[in-house]
Amino acid sequence: MSVVKERMLVSVWNNSKHHPTGAGYGIKIKAKDRNAYFDKEWKYVVLLLEGRYGGIQVNIDKKSFWDPVCRELCHKEIGLWLKKNFKIPWKKGKPYKLIMEHIKDNRFKITHK
Fold first, then answer.
1. Exposure winner among 41, 42, 56, 57, fewest CB in 10 A?
2. Integer CA distances (angstroms), 16 to 12, 67, 76, 92, 112, in order
């Protein structure tokens, strides 16, 4: 019997400032997915980015992540990963889509669509 993984479609995000350090980039999650797969008790989540060795800890213990509008996972390593794998900046209004898979507890895997 195989285990069905919990997958969600997410979008890349930028705060309109394209820093060479990777700062200002992230992953935007739908509110319904955030509510279904994330726990307000968690201080952070661990993201495993496709093709990158090791996970990164991303803070979710902040009002903006639980806000009805924002919902971004932001970290400079996400920005560096995006710059390595995608054309940055992307066309306005056309953010890249990614697959985010809930692995276990506060661990998630991000892969190209």
1. 41
2. 12, 19, 14, 10, 22
